Amino acid sequence: MELFFAQLLNGCALGALYGLFGIGFGLVFATMGILNAAQGAYASWAAIVAMYAIDLLGLPFPVAVLVGILAGGMVAVLVDQIGFEPLRRFGPGLHQAAMLGALITSIAFWIMLESAAGFATGQQSLAFPPGSYPAAVFHAGPMMLPAMQAITLAGLVVVGGGMHWINTRTRFGAAMRAVGWDPVAAGLGGVNARVIVIATAFLSGGISGFAGILSGISTANVSASLGQGLMLKGFAAVVVGGYDDIRGTAIAGLALGVLEVFCAQYLSSSWRDGFAYALLLGFLMLRPRGLFGSAGFTRA
Amino acid sequence: MLRRTLAALAAAALLATPAFALDAGAYKVGFVTDNTGPLAFAGMSFSRGAELAAAQISAGGYMGIGTKLELVEKEGAGDAARSIQSYNQLIADRSVLATSCCILSPIAGALKPIALNNKVPLVIYGATAPGLPSLPYVYSVTGLPGPAEVAMSKHIAAQAKPQTVAYFVLSDNEAFQARFKASQAAMEAAGAKTVGVVNVLSADTDFTAPATQAIALKPDLMMVYTTQSPAAGIVAAVRARGWTGMMSANDAISPAAVFKKIGPPLAGVPFPVNFSPDASETPKAKGFIEAYTAKHGSAPDLYSAQGYTAIWLIAQGLKSLPGKPTREALATALSKITVLEHDVYGGLPITGGQAETRYTLFLNWTADGKITAWKP
Amino acid sequence: MMDIVEDLWAAYASTLGFAMVNAFFALATYATLSAGILSFGAVTFGAAGGFLGAQMVLHSTVPLPLIFLAAGLAGAVVSLLVAMIFLRLESHWMALASLALVLITRVVVLNTPDLTGGVNGLSIPQPLPLEWLAGLLVVTVGAFYALDRSWYGIAARAVREDTSVATCMGIDPRRIQLIAMGISGFVGGLGGVMMALMLQFVSPDTFFIHVAFTMIAGVVLGGSHHWFGPVLGAAVFTALPTVMQAFIPEMQDIGNGAALLLIMIFLPRGLLDPRAMRLRRARK
Amino acid sequence: MTLLALADVTKSFGGVTAVGGLSFTVRPRHVVGLMGPNGAGKTTIINLISGLLHPDAGTIRLGGQPVTRARPHEIAGGGLARTYQNVRLISGMTALEQVIVGSYLRRGTSLLASILHLPAARAAARATRADAMDLLARVGMADRADTLAETLSYGEQRRIEIARALASQPKLLLLDEPTAGMNAAESAEIGRLVHALRDDGLTVLMVEHNMRLVADFCEHVVVMNFGRKIAEGPPAACIADPAVQEAYFGKQRDAQRHRA
To answer: What is d(CA D38, CA D36) in angstroms, rounded to the nearest whole number?
Structure first.
């Protein structure tokens, strides 16, 4: 029983990373209709920058994390403005040609950013210097909760809640959704579409970057390929949760993490990812609008 | 007496000077690197070792004064298709006499038939699948896994007498599966029961859950059979969860980069290794470590030693040939080599094209980042 | 002089071979894309063809042409099964589902060692004669050319550009897309066995996500509106790393990415674009 | 004898009734006009008949067969073709190819024959091309056959769209505002074309809100407002109907007042 709860907690902490990353990933997909292959690289770069901010500049931990998040957001804006903006002339967000073009430019950025990250890390897997981050372990009877797991879970709650609030309660959120539906119409409606797009890209990169930093710390692995693992599972969380639904993404991320850990503990670690992706497929087939989306949908 | 001494000296001098010698000039060796891609962390060490070897061979006149060895590097990026293309470009250059390649066994397996078809000597520097070498063209300078793990297992079983063992195994890697099985057999023969096997995958990065799983098995000893990144992550995760019991790992955690990353939690975790800049003490090893540190600014690791050895083997083959050698002649010459002259391991016997390294070093990191001999 | 030609051939024959193999994958992707489906499924169909082909080479004496046929059919069977399940989804979800399929394919390949050799993969001691590869590619490209001119090609373009108009013209989009998936499966299966023979081994990594991205990039780069676009794109995409290695060995990946990016921004419809050609003709 | 029959057809979108309890019939070889001010539900009717939408209640029959739940391509197979209010040609295709798309239902060869480029397939393709050229000639666009359709003028695009609709050899042709954006001369030409088609045996149901054109073109008119039928009969009688006058001019006066 003790093992069960310990693994449940591990699964939640792991899933919180997927959920966090997924929220950033889903933001771009929901707002701009872009399947962004470069999203993982935002996470890698945020972690690399945050690590060097501590290692080389000696910044205190919270400041370094903030610097990393900023870096993730700025890389995202760069990719958006160089790689996606020229393609928006195709028309509204979800046009197939635009989606395809953006997928390809995002692949191009993925290749470049990951390769550059390889140079930045000297092709090594590095880590945050031991002792530079909170390493305390909270004990409650037989249960233990390392500080980084607590921070990750809190991060998901704060970011997820914050984004949900922005999305549903603020003018900015409404503007984001308007741009998602149709940038031209949104422009006519008095929303400066370009500003909204840049802000969305920044948020998306910052959130995925935050996930990258947390993942880099708790797995003691900061490398060019850090983002890739997050990317595949984060993508699954987005689809299962419903790509425009932040609550759904957060819960789906947690569920995927728990599923993954329990599969490895109680079933088979080699089929573990198979379960996660089969769940993803199942959701696509049966509830393509995600956890909280309406089940029915029509072909346009 | 004097005459006999003089005669002996003359004979020694005659033996020391080859009866025939290579023409002066540059002899090209093709080298498929993995300096980008997922294996770049090791790939860069392999090629740095090889570059050092080529520089030393050329500068020192090992194959004759003015006879140089030129390394021609092409990128394989850890990808089979790209490695094959790079390899074909290397051997299409007729002045390339020998080639060296490959960290991954499947890629080595894919290049081997090309080497055989084109009759080009190929010295494999990293991949360790059994059966790769094929005389007279394909050689491997890296010992097959197994003996080292068995030796370490016996050593640990004798020294620490664990009753129960839990294993971490990279389930999607054949070489580590083999190492694990060899070790497990040795441990069980010594009376240490297996209480559980925790499988992880190559692409995994989060080891908190596997660590929790293993700790719950309450073993006397945890043995880690995975590649570098997972091994480092597992040790860190197990220690972070407060488990202080005994752990062992493998040579993947020997590079300095691993300690820089993980730090004190690595202390006291033994690993078997055939080369370590801190523990290898033969004169050739010391020379290599000094020269490498001078050239690259950091100490070599086991990978750079392997890349270095591969090029020295080729040079040794070339040295035994006269005039302008051919690929076929070089292959024949290589097949006659049974002992590597210039090795950093303190003895590198080669049988049937496969080198055997003698793993004699059982080392561990200390809390302040030094490598010392392991004691329980 | 002959020596130079021979050396060049020896150096770049395998690059040419991989370009042709990639052309199969690109054509398989083009087959679905030209009917309005963005699908990464060709990787899965390639795995079906590749592993079946490998097993046939290893454990039977079936001649090579029949192995190609079997691999193509294996791909087609898988693709039709997938199509029956996936074609209910609208385009974006279909793309995501096919991506999930690629991820699952790897897990299945890893865990069925009896069929696929598991992590070790399968070694295939059977070289692929380049003339076979070239011949089959010519035939396949010819078939795509013929299809493009046929009622099917025109109907597929209509479905891709405006499904609602197409369906009011009596075109059943699901039927067209089912055919597209079938073709994609067959050509993908062929590509799979070609890749297996070209590498002389297959493993779970042979058919994974990078292949999916490479081939989509190849198609869009070459031109996703023209039957020859995928072949051109695959050639460019295969040769690019080799060329980059010659000029900027350290930064070759960054160079590849930058080249891809520039082409997409300045030629968003790819190198070969029939619409642009017609527009140019109209302006004259 | 009716070719198309709508009985009590109802369709609403999110609580707003676009079409409510509409019934009318179309007899063969007639030109029937569907009239009504903007927002009356005319295009919804066209979409319901062509199967892009399905009614919430009521039935639609085409040539005696119920097609209420049929999918668009099945209805097209039953002999229906249509054009669009805003011309919808397929991007990247020449004028000739647009028309060949329309002849899909008469393709005449199998897929395998096409892949293998068999003589039968080539012959069928040639025949399709020839027919398509004839149709282009019929709408006066033969000299533009190889031009990218999207580079042509709006009026020319409309004519190509009609040729495309005719290529399937339909029994019933739905024209959704075929003269929108055309000048008087161009409109008259469309009128002559429609009459010629009727004389060849085709039945035409056209949406039009220009009353003069309806009076000139049609033999029978259905007038709608707010999704309901407000008048039906010969054009002159319908236009004179006070309800129709109110629907049209009352609205127009309101609109003018708003603009002022």
So the answer is: 7
Mean pLDDT throughout D17-29?
92
Q: Is the pLDDT of residue A296 over 50?
A: no
B190 touches B152 (CB < 8 A): no
Task: Measure the CA–CA gap between B221 and B186, rounded to whole angstroms.
Answer: 14
Give the ipTM of the model, two decimals please: 0.86
The DSSP annotation for A70-133 comes to HHHHHHHHHHIIIIIGGGGGG-STT-HHHHHHHHHHHHHHHHHHHHHHHHHTTTS-B-PPTTSS
Q: What tens digit of pLDDT does each residue of A23-57 get? A: 999 998 888 778 899 999 999 999 999 999 999 99
* Amino acid D217: pLDDT: 85
Q: Is C18 within 8 Å of B74 when comparing Cβ atoms?
A: no
Size of interface A-B (CB pairs under 8 A): 100
Residue with tokens 């419809």: C269
C251 belongs to a structural domain: no
CA–CA separation, B243 vs D46, rounded Å? Answer: 74
A18: nearest Cα among B206, B170, B213, B241: B206
pLDDT on residue C156:
95
Beta strands in chain B (DSSP E): 25-33, 67-75, 96-101, 122-124, 138-140, 164-170, 193-200, 221-225, 246-248, 271-273, 350-351, 354-355, 361-365, 371-373
Q: For D96-115, how does the pLDDT look when each residue is reduced to its tens digit (9 = 90+)?
A: 999 999 999 888 788 888 88
Residues with Cβ within 8 Å of C247's Cβ and at least 6 positions away in sequence, in order, are C255
Same fold flag, B18-143+281-355 and B147-273: yes
- Whether the per-residue pLDDT at A216 is higher than 80: the answer is yes
Whole-number Å distance between alpha carbons of B49 and B289 = 10
The H-assigned helical ranges of chain C are 2-33, 42-59, 64-86, 91-111, 113-116, 130-149, 151-161, 163-168, 173-199, 209-222, 229-247, 252-266, 274-283
Q: How many domains does chain C have?
A: 1
Structure tokens at B138: 């394909």
Residue A297's pLDDT band (cuts 50, 70, 90): very low
pLDDT one-digit tens code per residue, D142-192: 999 999 998 998 889 999 999 999 999 999 999 999 888 888 888 888 889
What is chain C's mean pLDDT, rounded? 90
Q: Which of A14, A125, A260 sits opposite B41 (nearest CB)?
A: A125
The residue segments making up the domain with residue C48 are 13-208
Q: Min CA distance, B161 vs chain C (Å)? A: 34
> Considering the domain boundaries, does residue C222 fall inside one?
no
pLDDT above 50 (res A93):
no
Q: Are C96 and A37 an interchain contact pair (Cβ–Cβ within 8 Å)?
A: no
Q: Where in chain B are the domains? A: 18-143+281-355, 147-273
Q: Identify the weakest region by mean pLDDT among A4-8, D27-31, D65-69, D245-249.
A: D245-249
Residue of B277, B264, B270 lying closest to B374 (CA atoms): B270
Neighboring chains of C (3 or more beta-carbon pairs < 8 A): A, B, D
In a domain, C225, yes or no: no
- What are the domain boundaries of chain A? 13-121+148-286
DSSP per-residue codes, C153-197 = HHHHHHHHH-HHHHHHTT--HHHHHHHHHHHHHHHHHHHHHHHHH
In the CATH scheme, what architecture does the domain A13-121+148-286 have?
Orthogonal Bundle (1.10)
- Superfamily of chain region B18-143+281-355: Response regulator (3.40.50.2300)
- Establish if D125 touches chain C: CB-CB under 8 angstroms: yes
Superfamily per CATH, domain B147-273: Response regulator (3.40.50.2300)
Judge whether residue D55 has pLDDT over 90: yes
Tell me what the mean pLDDT of segment D80-102 comes to: 92
Q: Does a structural domain hold residue C40?
A: yes
Report the pLDDT value the prediction gives residue D30, as an integer from 0 to 100: 92
Touch between chain B and chain C: 3 or more Cβ pairs under 8 Å: yes
